[in-house]
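Hi Y.,

Following your request, here is the sequence exactly as I used it, all 474 residues.
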Amino acid sequence: MEETKGSNYKWLALLIVSIGNFMETIDFSIVNISFPILTKVFDTELSITLWVTVAYLLVSTGLMLIIGRLGDIFSRKKVYILGFACFTTGLILCSLSQSILHLIVSRVVQGIGGAMIMTTGFAIVTAAFPERERGKALGIAGAMISAGLLTGPVLGGFLLDTLGWRSIFYTRVPVGIIGLVLSWILLREPGKSTAGAKFDIWGAATLFGGLCCLLLFINLGGRASFISLPALIPAGGAVLLLTLFGVQERRAEQPLVDLNLFRNRPFANGNIGLGMLVLALSAQILLMPFFLIDGMGYSATKTGLLLAAVSITSIVLGPLSGWLSDKVGTKLLCTVGLALTCLALFLLSGLDLASTEADIVLRLVIYGVGLGIFFSPNSSSIMGSVAKARLGTASAMMNTIRQIGMSGGMAIAGAIFSSRQSSYATQFAPENLSPEILQKLSLIGSYQDTILVAAIICGIGLLATLAFIRRQRV
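Below is the corresponding structure, written out as tokens. Let me know if you'd prefer a different format.
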């Protein structure tokens, strides 16, 4: 997509990408809230129902880098349009599902479309805007991700209560059709020659298989044990296939992923910082509802309103931090964002039964400020560090790391939380506490320990960022 300074096209492209970002990110939270109902409707076990999300993640994450390369070689517009068509078709198939297997297969179709939308969206925006406005544009596009995450639980709960589980899919079909039509009519072709471009089939096969095995290992290990046989088998597959992928990429004339990109310090550091932050914040996303509902005894509605403080803050600050990054650069803002997020996680780890709603909201606002300041400049730094011909690959890498970090962070947090909860239950058992108090104390203690670990992980990411900045100055 060529840069089109002085025209309205860049804003139209941003509008279309924002619709796609909202569509894709609302899906994660709106579907997860339906698990209890889906388990009852299809008369199955929760372990089977979870594959409604696991299948989506496996396919979308495994395909992102492959689709990013296809967009770079052929046409990001065509890939994006196909993504909307595939995602919308998946929504229709999901709403018509007659069995849990039918629903899981339909989610695979939806996951393919989701990978196309998320992978090419940031590349389209980056190419459409001049460098001086890149941060502002990516900040607005990123804010729509926060809006999707915020809207999902609220809209999902309402639809489930009023129209039934199928409505969480079919009510989004009109938005998908609007996005498809607008993409078809308004997006522009990149206008570049692809003569001589080749697609690395063996690299694609080994990468897809390796990432799927890695996510399977993360999911199975998080639910049972990371050293159990069911988890170790996909772990071995991931090591083997990703090693073969690395060998293939070094031999390929036109590799699927140019590993030399990681010699680009802004690209490498931006992705490392992103991965560490997502790994840390996954623990908070997973465990905060348990702390508020089971620990503090709040209702689901009240919990949703409290958690909205994070998304609302990041929605407001995302475009602002993107605009500031265009003026002052990305390094300072990324560092401040990481520092505030680390501070917020440390403060959140100190919450207990005596904490008031004001205590909770204050910490969540600091947390939202940190995330809002970090994400837009980080995206701008990563996307601005590569040539236009590699924008699709850079966008795909960013989203792949985000997905793997989220899955890995939740699995690790779940394992630590479960282990510490059992330990606290054993520790408090001799005190003859009531079952309710014992459960609450164990939950609070395990929540505090797990979030403290998340704060440490975020702190390591901050130190790595500071070390990188210092090396650049030398």
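The radius of gyration is 22 Å.

Thanks again,
Q.
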